Amino acid sequence: MTLAERTKEPLRRADPRLLVLVLVLWSFLLAFLETKDAALAGLLGSSLLYLLSGPKNVFWGLKNLLTINLFLVFVWLILPFSFSYPGSIVYRLGPLAVTREGLDLSILLSLKALAITLGAMAITGASSVFDLLAGARRLGAPEKLVALLLLMTRYTQVIGEQYHRLRQAMRVRGFNPKTNFHTLRSYANLAGLLLVRGIDRAERVQAAMLCRGYTGRFWIRTDFKFQPRDFLIIFLVLCLSCLVTVIDARLPS
Amino acid sequence: MPDFLLNLTDIVAGYPGRPPVLDGLSFALGPAELVGLVGPNGCGKTTLLGVIMGLIKPQSGVVRIFGEVRSEEKSFRPVRPQIGFVFQDANDQLFCPTVADDLAFGPLNLGASRKEADAVAQEVLKTLGLDGFGPRIAYDLSGGEKKLVALGTALALKPKLLILDEPTNFLDVEAVARLEAVLKKLNLPGVIVSHDLPFLDRMVTKRYRLTKGRLRPD
Ligand SMILES: Nc1ncnc2c1ncn2[C@@H]1O[C@H](COP(=O)(O)OP(=O)(O)OP(=O)(O)O)[C@@H](O)[C@H]1O
Ligand SMILES: [Mg+2]
């Protein structure tokens, strides 16, 4: 590793335990913010973390961020009209009225949601899911939960692979989705098959684990090292947290 | 009675709602014996291996492993890690994030320290000619590589006995040769299921055919 590489992505190669802590603390902090300005600062903070977490394809990042936050569309469809009606009205749309309170809340919610997901993307992008889970285990997360998430991550991939293989199998036999009964039934078959195979596989994986002396304990890596450069991350995150908290307290909405 | 490693008598086993797949099957594996098992698709080879490992419960019959009757889960537990079992589908066997984790899983369960387990993993990779595969992610491997790693997870247990379900599936000529060399060097007793008759001929001394739910010499 060259010096340039080492300084370019400080979040990467950080101690996964630290990353887990940052993820939890930062998310909670953001979730409890009450002012738009603080939430905006939080979003900027998350963006900074995101940039520090490794090489990025900004287009994909933005796409993922918006996909995860698709539910915000519903927030915007409902909240501005319904919140604290009759509140101070800013705009009238026939029988519907847009209230300032509703608008404010929608903005606050959106900023917070974006900030939290972007922060989570930064952390999960900076390390592998497996290392993060191992870190969480070291911090005292329940063994069962960690094992569950580990297997889930592994087998989401396997099921995804299977889905693609089945789709290909359908396509090479000339399957061409249309809005008709045949298409619907084929998709139903596909979904059913994935489910059945999933159950089947779960059974066989359990058998494989038993064959290797599994007794309920799941072993994961524990060789974490806290490095001096991790202090930099702590410092940075503390600064960001203080900043956001101060803004939140200073400017009552 | 000679000390058979495996001894099955009058096994009847199958799946709910169907006629039994194994019907009055008997089988004995003497010490230092490596045998082949052949038969058409769906004749029950994998089912038989499941019965041996205690993964499928026979409706009747007796399973003896290392001379002792094994009937319920508890009696199979201690013997399973002594038997290196390779599944027909390697995807079922590799469930850890990385190859190294998967290889270390067995030894860790048997009480090895992390360091010891990692050493075993390295050693196994070397034996299989897969040096440097440790950090690889299991789902990025090719079909043949997965199969070899699956064999590795069995070898990492340092088994007394090998049970391999179609070990040459997906392997290229070279990998098959390497597998043969590894197995010859280990020189362990056991059962190999395969459709690759030339391979079996080179590996085993005795071949059984499974038909109509029973075994007969082939
Ligand atoms: N989980 C299951 N549930 C119901 N029936 C099953 C199940 N697994 C296998 N069978 C049936 O039991 C019979 C024996 O299957 P088995 O997998 O033992 O065959 P095999 O000899 O290993 O075949 P192959 O050479 O294709 O691997 C088959 O007819 C199969 O359809
Ligand atoms: Mg089979």
Taking strands numbered 1, 2, ... along the chain, how are they ordered across the largest sheet of chain A? Answer: 1-2
Distance between the termini of chain B: 24 Å
Order of SSEs of chain A? HHHHHEEHHHHH
Strand content of chain A: under 5%
| Tally of DSSP helical segments of chain B | 8
Biggest interface: chains and residue counts? Answer: A-B, 28 and 30 residues
Strand content of chain B: 15-25%
Tell me the CATH superfamily of chain B: P-loop containing nucleotide triphosphate hydrolases
Can you walk through the features of this model?
The complex is a heterodimer of chains A (253) and B (218). Chain A has 253 residues and is mainly α. Chain A folds into 2 domains: 145 residues, no CATH class; 73 residues, no CATH class. Chain A is 72% helix and 4% strand. Chain A contains 10 helices and 2 strands. In chain A, strands 1-2 form a two-stranded antiparallel sheet. Chain B is 35% helix and 24% strand. Chain B has a 6-stranded mixed β-sheet, with helices on both faces. In chain B, helix 4 packs across helix 5 and helix 4 packs parallel to helix 6. Bound molecules: adenosine-5'-triphosphate (ATP) and magnesium ion (MG). The site of magnesium ion (MG) has 4 residues of chain B, from helix 1.
